[in-house]
Amino acid sequence: MTDAAPLPPSRLFFQSRVRRPRMAKAEGVYVWDQQGRRYLDGSSGAMVSNIGHSDPRVLDAMRRQMEQGTFGYRLHFETEAAERLADMTCALAPEGFEKVFFVSGGSEAVEGAIKLARQWAWATEQRSRWKVISRTPSYHGSTLGALALSGYRPLTEPFEAMMRPMPKVPAPRAWLDGLPMDDPATGAHYAAMLEAKILEEGPETVLAFIQEPVGGASTGALVPPAGYMEAVREICTRHGVLLIHDEVMSGGGRTGRFWGGDNWNAAPDLIAVSKGYGAGYAPLGAVTAHDRIVQPVLASGGFPHGHTYAGNPLACAAGVAVLEVIEQDGLLANASRIGEVLKARLQALAQRFPFIGDVRGLGLLLAFEMVSDRETRAPLPKNLDAYERLVDLAYAEGLIVYSRRSRGTEGDHILVCPPMISTEAHVDEIIEKLTTALTRFAAEAGLPA
Ligand code: PMP
Prior knowledge:
Elements: E1 23-27, E2 30-33, E3 38-40, H1 44-47, H2 56-68, H3 80-92, E4 97-103, H4 106-123, E5 131-136, H5 144-149, H6 153-156, E6 168-170, H7 174-177, H8 184-201, E7 206-211, H9 228-238, E8 242-247, E9 270-273, E10 285-290, H10 291-299, H11 313-328, H12 331-352, E11 356-362, E12 365-373, E13 378-379, H13 386-396, E14 402-404, E15 412-416, H14 424-445
Parallel strand pairs: 5-6, 5-7, 7-8, 8-9
Antiparallel strand pairs: 1-2, 2-3, 4-10, 9-10, 11-12, 12-13, 12-15, 14-15
Helix pairs in contact: 2-11, 3-11, 4-10, 8-9, 12-14, 13-14
């Protein structure tokens, strides 16, 4: 431990609302700051570092790629790294997904997916189809196209004048709406709202529906109710509407399957992925789609889209190594197994703290939502800022968790999403630190504990 020297003022304005310590080292599930304090990365950053930090196999692969060259412009050279990553990605993707388009992040992946969908409509003479229906709440990215899909008013409102408004349907928040999760009628109820919206807009104008198979930051690990995914697939097919899965957070293995959507028998037409795909080793994302979408686009002259860094060999080499680690170390199975253990422990916490209203998620994409009344599911008073306060209290214990307002301007949920390499001992440590943070929060907020 060294004495904490005051940090010089930062010129960055994309950082946290409070000043955080500087990172010195990251390894496995832990991150250390420059004062030598250790933090358990209980949210894998922003659900990114799925295989843990500084895996030597990924670092070696990146080093080897750096020695060969860090950049080869995709219009000038093919690279082994990009070709291999595309092969591996298609092998994991639903049947008929034969081509991949690389990008550098989640917003780019979503933009690429909706533009590829539109290019397909253009190429197949369905030019009246341009609307992309999405859900509220949702988050699909910060660039204007992806933001137009994002059902989260505090982020979208200032920019609405600059965006084409896109139709929205309610996300299937069965718990919040007081509906049973395992009754197929619940899934049918939410899917019917999608169909009603398609009919209201005019099916000939609707290009696609985009959803997160397991919700991320905006909904707090929302798992769809029984029957929903299958019904959505059927409705999209019947109306000629493409189904896009935003797997930016749920893809890459976190739910226990490589794609979150693989937890249901309802394959999408297009997939956008990032976060756990590069697992924090490099800015990386991808769009992949069924050949019935890609081939007409290629036949019509190609996809006029791209970013300079797309297919960057260093990022792709990292991606290849990340996928190899997931496979070699059986991390999908571990995410399922440890996810069950962690979820059960979070449910036990809900027994102890009555203000934990719901514990949900799949694999290691887990969250809990806080309420002032479990029966009515009324949120905690807004001025408690529980979502921020709990993050800070956990941080003080050396535990990193991720949080958002769950209902637009009110409501609070906390995502607990440690890396897929986590063990039972890590779960113990998470629960111990979280218990302390929750106890402190309850005391200062005057809540029962
Ligand atoms: N889609 C989803 C589901 C996400 O969770 C995010 C990031 N939180 C994005 C898109 C945007 O990704 P990025 O921040 O990498 O642009």
